Structure formats: structure tokens, C-alpha cells
Amino acid sequence: MRRSVLLIEDEESIRELVTDYFTQSAWQVIEAANGEEALELFNSCPPDLVIVDLMIPKVSGWNVCRQIRYQSTVPIIILTAKSEEENKLLGFELGADDYVTKPFSPRVLVARAETLMKRVDNTVGQEDPIISFGNIKVYERKRLVESGGQPVELSYKEYDVLLHLLRHRNFPLTREHLLNQVWGVDYFGDPRVVDTHIKNLRKKLGADACYIRTVFRIGYKFEVES
Asked: What does the record give as the DNA-binding region (predicted)?
């Protein structure tokens, strides 16, 4: 079955170029030229992936990202001319899973989208191991987290950080380690993105966030009693 991507970009020439590359790779592309149109399309035709430019009219890319993440865990790639680290950190804080700065290679953008979606493919049709702590249950292959039976809405990267901490429980992990394992060795952004995701996890896990400990001058660890 063809995957679908909602491409939110106000520059027609960029939309056409990106659409051509995704179409050649067997994706169905849904195009939106502004934030208002994008949210309408997202609700009427939920896509498998969202690519959103931050500088779009009517409803900003920031608010589009925020509203989509409020109701869905669909992977989001932010596309923008803004390269400052603070903008990247804010994008990740809003729940984005990747960040591509203009000018960019459409071929690389497609490759990054494919990599992101492989994580979804790997969860299909397999019996799901469950990891429990406090009131939290983590269903590994479904990428589902529940607290007291209610879903906890995490972005893909937030989930990956949590799962990596769980798999290395009681061992302190450096920010650099988490960056390499979750974002990949080719990520050259600000290590503070790890702190941003930890902050988001703690907020969303509520009282059970106490298991995620800060290790002074090192990083973080998921601490449970032996």
C-alpha cells in the first residue's frame, strides 16, 4: 500500500520539486499551501507522514505542528530556512521527529522520510512485549505508552528516548550516547535537544517521571530498584 505524505509548503516551486521526488518513490503526496488548508486536509485525509514548513501563511508551521501533535503521533519533519539551534529545539519540543534546513536535497528528504517510516513498519504484525514501571505500560512494537490504562501521547523521538533509557535501566547514559542512538551518528545539532525531550517526557509521564534521573555532568538514567 502506498504511503501518504502531507506536504505543507507555500512556495509552489518547492512543492512541485518535492512532490516529484516523493511520487517517484511511490508516495502519495497531499499538498497544502497554508496552515489552515493543511489542518483541514490532515483531519479529512490523515497521512502517514507530515512535512511542514515553518514560515507558511494563515496558520504558522509552529501552530500546525502543535495542533497535529496534540491529536496524533504521526511522524513530523520540519522544513524551514531557519537554521538557528533554538528554532530546532523548539521544533523538537513541539513534537517534531526530524528537522531539514533549506536549501536541501529532495533526494535526502525522501531518504530521511523512508528511514523514519521504517520504525513504523517494524512494529506491524508482531507480538508486543510489555515493559511496566509505576503506573506506566510500554508496548514496544506498537510504540504505545499507557498510564493507568490511558494513552500517553509521545512523539516518535520521545518514545525512542524513553525506550532506550528503559533498555539500559540503572546505567547512566551520556547526552552524546542518546544522540548517536536515537538521532543517529550523522546528527550534528545541539546536544540540548536531548534535554528538551527529557523535559517533555517528564511532563507527560507525570508522577512516574521520577524514574528518569539526571546524572550530574553525565546525562540521564532510568533508575529502578534491583
From this structure: 128-224
